């Protein structure tokens, strides 16, 4: 009788039943574990790429912060400083000497000095004040003081009114300005005074 046939295994996972195995082909289901050196190089490459990604993100954040700061400076609206009785050429030379790069406009009221940053505005205002150069300007929009008019007072020195408001009434008064009436021929028994209070420190109800 002929030779005995080999019994087939009933286990479906047995690789001996695969036709590819019989023909000498490698089973595609067999997993191949990468070598340790290959795994280490991949991990190291990921770490390096992540580190440079962090640096790139930090640079982007810094650039965004600079852009926001620059745009905020450009959008800030500052009131002009109006100077009288001084020639335009002299004003330009003076502003350039103190490091202020301003724009100038000649108007009926005088020469407007238009600054682009708050720092230049403060420098210009401080210089004009110390040099006793006549000028006028408006309050910065973000720092406008609360204003109130006091009536019924006799003729008093502005410094005395300011001192009493601060010491006796504990109010953050910034300045006191006497007000003149339209009809100066009429003698009034009381005077009007304009008071400037620090922003968000006073109100009509509180006064």
Q: Could you characterize what this model shows?
A:
- Among the domains are: 81-141; 145-197.
- Helix content is 37%, strand content 17%.
- It is built from five helices and seven strands, in the order H-H-E-H-E-E-H-E-E-H-E-E.
- The chain has 207 residues and is of the alpha+beta class.
Question: How would you sum up this structure in a few lines?
Answer:
This protein is of the alpha+beta class and 207 residues long. Helices cover 37% and strands 17% of the residues. The protein has helices at residues 19-22, 36-75, 88-97, 118-130, 158-167, and strands at 81-83, 103-106, 111-114, 135-136, 146-153, 173-179, 191-197.
Would you report the number of β strands? 7
Return the string of H and E elements.
HHEHEEHEEHEE
Helical stretch count?
Answer: 5
Q: Termini separation (Å)?
A: 126 Å
Q: What labels describe this entry?
A:
4-stranded antiparallel β-sheet, 3-stranded antiparallel β-sheet, 17% strand, alpha+beta, 7 strands, 37% helix, 207 residues
Task: Please write out the topology.
Elements: H1 19-22, H2 36-75, E1 81-83, H3 88-97, E2 103-106, E3 111-114, H4 118-130, E4 135-136, E5 146-153, H5 158-167, E6 173-179, E7 191-197
Antiparallel strand pairs: 1-3, 1-4, 2-3, 5-7, 6-7
């Amino acid at each position: 009788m002929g030779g005995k046939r080999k019994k087939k295994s009933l286990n479906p996972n047995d690789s001996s039943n695969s036709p590819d195995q019989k023909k000498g082909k490698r089973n595609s289901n067999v997993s191949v574990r990468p070598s340790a050196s290959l795994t280490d190089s991949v991990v190291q490459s990921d770490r390096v790429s992540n580190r440079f990604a962090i640096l790139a993100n930090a640079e982007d954040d810094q650039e965004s912060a600079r852009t926001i700061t620059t745009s905020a400076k450009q959008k800030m609206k500052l009131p002009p400083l109006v100077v009288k009785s001084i020639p335009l050429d002299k004003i330009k030379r003076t502003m350039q000497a103190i490091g202020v790069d301003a724009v100038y406009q000649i108007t009926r009221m005088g020469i407007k000095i238009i600054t682009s940053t708050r720092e230049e505005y403060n420098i210009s205002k401080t210089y004009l004040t110390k040099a006793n150069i006549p000028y006028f300007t408006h309050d910065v929009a973000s720092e406008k003081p609360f204003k109130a008019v006091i009536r019924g007072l006799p003729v008093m020195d502005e410094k005395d009114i300011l001192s009493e408001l601060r010491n006796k009434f504990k109010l953050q008064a910034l300045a006191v300005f006497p007000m003149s009436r339209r009809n100066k021929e009429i003698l009034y028994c009381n005077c009007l005074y304009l008071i400037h209070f620090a922003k968000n420190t006073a109100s009509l109800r509180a006064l």
